[in-house]
Amino acid sequence: MSASDDVRQRRHIPPGADLGRSGRGYRGFTQRHPLTAFALIAFPMGWAILSIPALAFHGVIPGGELPVEIFALGLTLLVMLPTTVWVVSVTDGRRGVRALFARTFRWRFSLVWWLVVLVGVPITGVAVGAALGRTVDTTDLSSVLLDGLTVGFLVPLVLVNLWEETVWAGFVQTRLEARHGLLVGAALTSVGFAGIHLPMLFAAELSASVLLESLGFLVVAAIIFRLTAGLVMRGAAGSVLAVAVLHAGWNASSGEDGLVDDLLSGGQPVLIAVLALTLVTAALVALVRPRLYGEAQGEPAAGIPQRS
Fold first, then answer.
1. Are 247 and 254 in contact (CB under 8 A)?
2. Is the distance from CB of 148 to CB of 258 less than 8 angstroms?
3. I want to staple 186 with a disulfide (CB 3.0 to 4.6 A). Which of 17, 20, 227, 307 is the partner?
């Protein structure tokens, strides 16, 4: 190999990569195809973990009704996050890992965007529910808010959502959007985001119609949420924390016995939450429209680093 050939090859190796091991084995494959390498590790292991509650529920293995949330936590902390950190360390070195976690804890963005991610979806959800004829129950408002903000919001944010979005927003979606733009990047991320959750749908009594309905809601919600996440990253200086807060607010708005569900006197809030998220997304499109126009003209996406 000539010296010029060696230089040309090295130009394709990301900064911080281990040049001594580039092109060899799975590490070399990871340098060339980081998202595929992540998926090949995270999905088989993730599906195996999330299948345990479904198998136990249907009596295939002992255990009965196991809490799905515990296995989702295990998936995030034991599989997805370590895999992401390893892939980023291979492709971008320690500098890339530091940059990723700097975005995970980035809290300095405007007050307007803090209000959007903190209360945008829950308040819109309550408003949508009221518009659809649901009764807003404020009888025990202080207790509902305290429980919703602690158990329903802060605990999931710290334990799951922050690390989950380090993976999806900070790593997967950032790379896909840098390559394909906002819409395609969000759509592709939603495929993985919904796909990793598929086994959770089976941890219940299901008919074909219920399964199709649950799958439909999962796919639609994933597409809308990932688009919203992309808009939030543009407005909130690329902050993963902002997306994680939004995610915690979405969970509090869409889950049974969650904050919005309690304020609307119970009942299944998923449809209301999807409608609320759609309205918030439409408002954010208007808010970040100048940035989107700049992207259409070929400018780099504000808040979306080219590599992390």
1. no
2. yes
3. 227
Q: Rounded to an integer, what distance in angstroms lies between the CA atom of residue 62 and that of residue 53? A: 10
Q: How does pLDDT run across 107-121, given as a tens digit for each residue?
A: 999 999 999 999 999
Residue 214 lies in a domain: yes
**Does 210 have pLDDT greater than 70?**
yes
Is 230 inside any structural domain?
yes
Report if residue 212 sits inside a domain.
yes
- Residue 306 in this model has a pLDDT that exceeds 70: no
Tell me whether residue 191 is in a domain.
yes
Residue 235 and residue 287 in contact, taking contact as beta carbons nearer than 8 Å: yes
Q: Region 280-305: what's the mean pLDDT? A: 71
What are the structure tokens assigned to 41, written together?
């590790």
> For residues 148 and 161, is the Cβ–Cβ distance under 8 A?
no
User: How many structural domains compose the chain?
Assistant: 1
Residue-wise pLDDT tens digits, 238-257: 999 999 999 999 998 888 88
Distance CA(64)–CA(197), nearest Å, equals 20
